[in-house]
Amino acid sequence: MRKAQAKKLPLAPDGRYNDVLVTRFINNLMWQGKKSTALNIFYDAVDKVSKITGEEGYEVWKKALANVTPSVEVRSRRIGGATFQIPSEVRPDRKISLSMKWLIRYSRERNGRTMADKLANEIVAASKGEGAAFKKKEDTHRMAEANKAFSHFKV
Q: Which of 82, 94, 104, 113 is most buried per CB count within 10 Å?
């Protein structure tokens, strides 16, 4: 085991929006180290979002990400012979990570022609408070609310 926790390497901001969050999203979107493909998919999706909504695509993406970001989650903890789902606050870094992963995962599960189309549609849906990624957040919050009675078992 390590003595000290590994340092987080700083990410370089992306070319178009000069935002580290976009780079992080693209890195999550990337498969098999194909970053240029992931870049093209993301930028195409953002362009399609601005075409669909008539607003700035980047702003819609940020709104969608904010709408999908969870504030609480449940964690399993074994106490005695039973396993309890204990609600806990989500760390800021993990919030962003979860929201990005959910957006990408549910985009991939959508039906559409290209990944850019799927991602654009999921972003538009999430910005309106609809779509599978937003539903996942709602379900997570609902589960935490239902298991509020076990919050005194916090780790």
A: 104
